[in-house]
Amino acid sequence: MAPQLLGVLRRPTFGLLSLGITLSFALLFLYSDGFIFFFPYFVLYVPLDSTPYFLLDLVISTLSGIVTSGSIYQLRFVPYVSSRNAGTGLAGMLAAVVAGACPCMYLLPLLALAGGAGGVLGALGIVLNNFQIPIKLLSLALLGLVLLTLERSLGAYCRISLESQPLR
Amino acid sequence: MMKSGRGDNRKVAIGVAAIAVVGAILVLALYQIQNSSRVTSTGAPDPRLAYLTILPGYAVLGPRNATVTIFEFGDFQCPTCDNWFKTQEPQVLQNLVDTGRANFVWRDFEYYGIDSTNASQAAYAAGEQGKFWQFYDLLYTNQGGINSGWANKANLFGFAQSLGLNMTQFGSSFNGGKYLNMVTTNFNDGKKLGITGTPTFFVVGPHGKVVEIIGSQPYSVFQDTVNSMLNG
Fold first, then answer.
1. Helical axes A51-77 vs A84-101, angle rounded to 10°
2. A168 CA: distance to closest CA in chain B (Å)
3. B23 close to A97: Cβ distance less than 8 angstroms
4. Domain B47-231 classified CATH 3.40.30.10?
5. Contact list, B212 vs chain A (CB under 8 Å)
6. Cys-Cys link to B12, which of A41, A86, A102, B232 (CB 3.0-4.6 A)?
């Protein structure tokens, strides 16, 4: 049996939504981690020793896209569903964004130079910078967990629907 | 038991969608920030040139009168600067600076705190004894976590001692704040240049042409930029 989420992604709206979110997140993470540059011209540069980070960024982006569109599908079409999945997915994506933004050579200086609240956020960013990889792995785990439960709940819903059909 | 209301679901859906939208906006904002400080080099002289001159106190690698100058604005505690130092700088120095095609000037732009400021002052104080670049190498080679203490005063003095510097002279310059003014000037110049992160490079070529390179970009970008300036 094909995975339920695959069925969701085959729908043009959700497939495109997933692709759009994946690309947006990938762009954000790869830019933040210094894998892509726009000036003086566009460059994608992945040093050999940074390949695991690059792959981690791509996997988290892809999972974020799938989980988001899957969650929206679930909330839209599956009645009486718990919002816990979507909440966990949100936490996973937040963790990914935090991990992606913390070491960002563009964001930290801006915060640090802003003074006041920006300075405090900058200081927090410096602390979180040391935990970038654990946060990214946490994000991966959360998104993976949501993916599994989403798949399970969508499958369960389909089964119930079929079984509840009156016999003719 | 599934008794969450549709209102809760809607809130979560809005939150999830918001994250995606924020991600996209952030990308556009970052792109805009990078783009905002660019000034075309056609027509009027580039105003950034006012802050991109080699002043007497600066340590310069390569011929002082080279046609092209690569300015780096960096922070000794910045991990990305360290990454560039270890992965790209050797090629830049070997192929562009050692061959006399360009010279290289390092200027500090600190935002990580007092250890960064002290590290820069210590490097300038070492430069007074002709060992700026040795001190620079030592700092990046020994870089630890941001504000973890690896660049505190005791360690900076230790680095100076390991290079065989005259410690009386070094201590006098460092403790007397002889280079604090230079650090402040570099920082203010950096802000006027619109620096939003480190490392940021400005490649200054003939006819007042300036190209800004942000981040730990590969050697090929520097090579292409210098080549285009020398051939253009």
1. 150
2. 30
3. yes
4. yes
5. 39-40
6. A86
